[in-house]
Amino acid sequence: MYLNILITKWLVVLIILFPVGIDSSSDSASPPGNKTENAIQSATPIQPYSENPWYWEYHGEPILLRGGSDDDNLFQWTGDKLTNHLDLLVSVGGNYVRNTMSNRDEGNVSAFQRNSDDLYDLNQWNPEYWDRLRFFLDETAKRGIIVQLTLWDVFDLGGPNDPWTGENNVNYSNDLISGDDDFHNTVETDNTEGLNYQKKYIDKLLSIALRYDHVLYNINNESSEGSMWENYWARHINQAAADRNREAYVTTMQFDPTNSVRAAMTYRDIYSYVEISQNNQDSRGARGQGHWDNIMNWRQKLLSNPMPMNNVKVYGGGEGSNYSAGSETEAINRFWRNIFAGTASSRFHRPALPRVWGSGLKERVQTNLKAMDMLLEEFDIFSASPHNDLLRHRVAAARSAVEAYVTADIGNEYAVYFPRGRFMIDLDPWEYVEKARVRWLHIEELSWSEPEIVEVQWEGDRSNWGHRGTITLKTPGNEAYVALIEVVE
Questions:
Q1: What is the pLDDT of residues 33-51, one digit of tens each?
Q2: How many angstroms separate the Cα of 400 from the Cα of each of 288, 336, 396, 422?
Q3: CATH topology of domain 39-383
Q4: Region 210-226: what's the mean pLDDT?
Q5: How do residues 339-385 score in pLDDT, each as one tens digit?
Q6: In CATH, what is the architecture of 387-487?
C-alpha cells in the first residue's frame, strides 16, 4: 500500500514537471518565447466575423486587412531587416502580409540540407529555414499582423534551387519528378513516393504554423493545376488542424479570379474564403469600373452564403511599363475600390524587378495606408456595404468618365471614393434624410476638411411619382478624395 502511494506521488510530480504531450525534441514543442498550445487555444484566432461574414475578426474584434511589403517570402528576411519592415507597416496602419514558402531568390535558404555534391537531401531538414519561419511568425504575431501563407508556388519549380526536381536531389531520379507536371500530378497519378516527400514537408510546415492564431492558408499561387491537387492539400490542412482541435481557414488562388470564386463555392466544405487577387491586374482582371463590376458580380454569386474575399496581391507599379500589372496609380485605385467594394483585404504586391509588378511599401503606398486608417477611425466599414446604386450621374453621357465608388450604412453614413480628377456626382441617401454632415478626406495630404451641413434636396412626389433625394458631391480639387457623409437628421 505504502509503495503504491509513493509511486502515485512521484507520478504527480513528474506530470507537473514534464507535462504530457510536450516533447522538447519534437516539432510539437513550442519554440522559446512563443505562445504555448493552450494559450493560442484560449484566444480567438483569425476567423470570419460572426456579425458580418464578408470580413474577418481577430481576438474577438472585426479587422480589415490591408498592407504592402517589399517581398512575398518575408520569412526569408532576418533580424532588423524583417522587424524594421514590419514596424514600418504597422506605423502606417497596415496589419497584413503575404508569405510564400519560396526559396528561389538570392540569399534564400531551402528547407533541405545540401550534400558535398550540392544536391538536396529531402530526408534532412535545414534548421535555418524553419528557424526563419518561426522568427517571422513570432514577430508578426507580436504586432498583430495577419499572415496569408501560400504553401506552393509554381514559379519555385525548375532551376538549380528547386529541391523537388530529381536531378537536384539524392532521393529520386527525374523519372519520378522532373518538372511542373510531375510535381503537381502526384495525387492524380498515384505517385506515392513523390507525394510522401511532399506530405513530409507540408506536415513539418503545419507543425509550426498551426501553433499560431494569425495565419490564413492558401494552397497555390496563380494555380491552374486542377481541383484534385488543390483539394487534396486543402483537406490535408483541415485535417491537420482538426487533429490539433483547431480550425484552419483555407483558399486556393486560381490563375483566373472567376475560377477562384467557383472553386470556393463548389467546395465550400474545404474552402472558407475566396482569393481574387488576379482581378487586380490588367491582364487577368480589369481597371476602373470593370474592376469594381467584377467584384460586384462575384459578391452577388456569394450573397446567399457570404465568405471573405481577399486581395493579397494588388498589382501595378511605376508608370505601368509592365502591361500585365498596370500602373502605380491604378494599383492605388484598386486598393481603395477593393475596400469600398466590401472585400476583406487589400495588399500592395511586391515591386519585383526587372518587370515592376507592384508598389510594395513605398512612400505613396504608406500615405494611402495612413489615409485608409484615418477613414476607418471615422467610418464603420463593418456595418456598410457597397452601394453604387445610390449614385446618379448628372450627365448620362459622362457616366464612363466619372469614377466614384460608394460604401454605405444606409440611413446613417456613406463614404464615396473619388480617384484623381475633378468629379461631380449626386448621391441619393435613399432613406428620408433631411440634413447631413459632409467632410472631405484629402488622401495625399492626409487631412480632413471642415464639416459642412447640407440639406438633402428631395424631388418628385412621395405618393404619386416617387421621391428622390440628392446630395451633390463635387471634389475640392484634382487629387484623390473620400467624401464622408453622416446623417444629422
A1: 344 444 344 468 999 999 9
A2: 9, 19, 9, 14
A3: TIM Barrel (3.20.20)
A4: 93
A5: 999 999 999 999 987 789 999 999 999 999 999 999 999 999 999 99
A6: Sandwich (2.60)
Tell me the C-alpha distance between 317 and 353, whole Å.
11
**Is the pLDDT score of 420 beyond 90?**
no
Average pLDDT over residues 91-108: 95
pLDDT digits (tens, 9 = 90+) for 289-325: 999 999 999 999 999 999 999 999 999 998 888 989 9
State residue 189's pLDDT score: 93
CA nearest neighbour of 163 among 125, 105, 120: 120
Numbered ranges of CATH 3.20.20.80 in the chain:
39-383
Give ranges for CATH 2.60.40 in the chain: 387-487
Burial class of residue 280, CB neighbours in 10 A (0-12, 13-18, 19+):
buried
Residue with grid cell 433625394, as numbered in its chain: 469
Q: Which amino acid is at 289?
A: Q
pTM: 0.90
